[in-house]
């Protein structure tokens, strides 16, 4: 039996200015899909996401945290990369979405059209911006048990995700997260503030629930034609209702369980279609030792997208690899 191919899509925190720029410059399929999606964003909200993403004044090191741009930019880059892969004959047997990456997974699997998925992302950004107060998300490199053991974390933040045995993310009020960072610094526990200006996967986004659910109720949602494994539930989803796309904003991220669910069915080749290789890095920590060769990333802040894409194409399509 051929090794199944799994596309993985990450969410907020994985974005940066200039992401995918090498593909945009040199890969015609990626560029055309990005332009098509940007045209839709302009028609919907009146602004170009691409002009913000690729503006020469925005450096890779600058925080890309304005939600009205970063939200659609993540979806656009992920969906365009999946499209470019498929145009080269590399098609997924499964998709895994994580947080905002659920929208790209939904579009690739046929649950939503690409335009409807982008519309949902744009509307989510608008509603959250208009109804929710600012917050922060913090990645902590430590035992997730720390969240339960440290009262400062447990009382002043919410657990957004446990990514692997020594990496978890919390959401909370900015002042609370700042206090937690000071405490972690004193204890010499590594941590990183994510480029996110709202506390997703926490009560800080609850004000967006009702208006967003009303918007989602208008969308046409279909049964996936490519198996869709969600990090909201940690398993495959077949009967997806509109409220599911609120759950992926509010519930904790269960990528670890989703990946383990996929790998328990059949050991696959995992392609991180996100902007920074975040899920590939997580997968290398989650899957059994010796699995690294089954995990690939394409887009990274180091701009070797064309090389990575060619390497994946050669390994999958060239003998003795998989035949499609």
From TrEMBL:
<dbReference type="GO" id="GO:0016746">
    <property type="term" value="F:acyltransferase activity"/>
</dbReference>
<dbReference type="InterPro" id="IPR016035">
    <property type="entry name" value="Acyl_Trfase/lysoPLipase"/>
</dbReference>
<dbReference type="InterPro" id="IPR001227">
    <property type="entry name" value="Ac_transferase_dom_sf"/>
</dbReference>
<dbReference type="InterPro" id="IPR050444">
    <property type="entry name" value="Polyketide_Synthase"/>
</dbReference>
<dbReference type="InterPro" id="IPR014043">
    <property type="entry name" value="Acyl_transferase_dom"/>
</dbReference>
<dbReference type="Pfam" id="PF00698">
    <property type="entry name" value="Acyl_transf_1"/>
</dbReference>
<dbReference type="InterPro" id="IPR016036">
    <property type="entry name" value="Malonyl_transacylase_ACP-bd"/>
</dbReference>
<keyword id="KW-0012">Acyltransferase</keyword>
<protein>
    <submittedName>
        <fullName>Acyltransferase domain-containing protein</fullName>
    </submittedName>
</protein>
<feature type="domain" description="Malonyl-CoA:ACP transacylase (MAT)">
    <location>
        <begin position="8"/>
        <end position="306"/>
    </location>
</feature>
<keyword id="KW-0808">Transferase</keyword>
């Amino acid at each position: 039996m051929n090794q199944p191919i799994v596309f993985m899509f990450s969410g907020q925190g994985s974005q940066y200015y200039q992401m995918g720029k090498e593909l945009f410059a040199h890969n015609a399929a990626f560029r055309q899909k990005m332009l098509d999606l940007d045209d839709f964003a302009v028609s919907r909200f009146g602004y170009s996401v691409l002009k913000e993403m690729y503006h020469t004044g925005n450096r890779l090191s600058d925080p890309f945290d304005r939600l009205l741009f970063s939200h659609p930019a993540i979806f656009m880059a992920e969906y365009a990369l999946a499209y470019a892969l498929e145009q080269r004959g590399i098609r997924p047997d499964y998709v895994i979405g994580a947080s905002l990456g659920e929208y790209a997974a939904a579009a690739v699997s046929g649950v939503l059209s690409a335009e409807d998925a982008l519309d949902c992302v744009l509307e989510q950004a608008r509603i959250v911006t208009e109804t929710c107060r600012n917050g922060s998300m913090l990645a902590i490199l430590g035992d997730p048990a720390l969240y339960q053991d440290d009262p400062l974390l447990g009382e002043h933040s919410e657990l957004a995700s446990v990514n692997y045995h020594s990496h978890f993310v919390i959401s909370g009020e900015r002042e609370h997260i700042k206090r937690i960072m000071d405490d972690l610094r004193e204890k010499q526990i590594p941590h990183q503030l994510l480029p996110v200006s709202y506390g997703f996967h926490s009560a800080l986004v609850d004000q967006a629930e009702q208006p967003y659910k009303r918007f989602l109720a208008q969308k046409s949602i279909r049964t996936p034609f490519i198996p869709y494994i969600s990090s909201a539930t940690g398993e495959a989803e077949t009967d997806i209702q509109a409220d599911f796309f609120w759950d992926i904003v509010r519930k904790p991220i269960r990528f670890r369980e989703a990946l383990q669910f996929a790998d328990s069915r059949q050991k696959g080749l995992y392609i991180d279609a996100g902007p920074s290789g975040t899920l590939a890095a997580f997968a290398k920590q989650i899957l059994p030792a010796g699995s690294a060769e089954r995990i690939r990333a394409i887009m990274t802040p180091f701009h070797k997208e064309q090389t990575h894409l060619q390497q994946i194409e050669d390994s999958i399509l060239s003998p003795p690899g998989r035949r499609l």
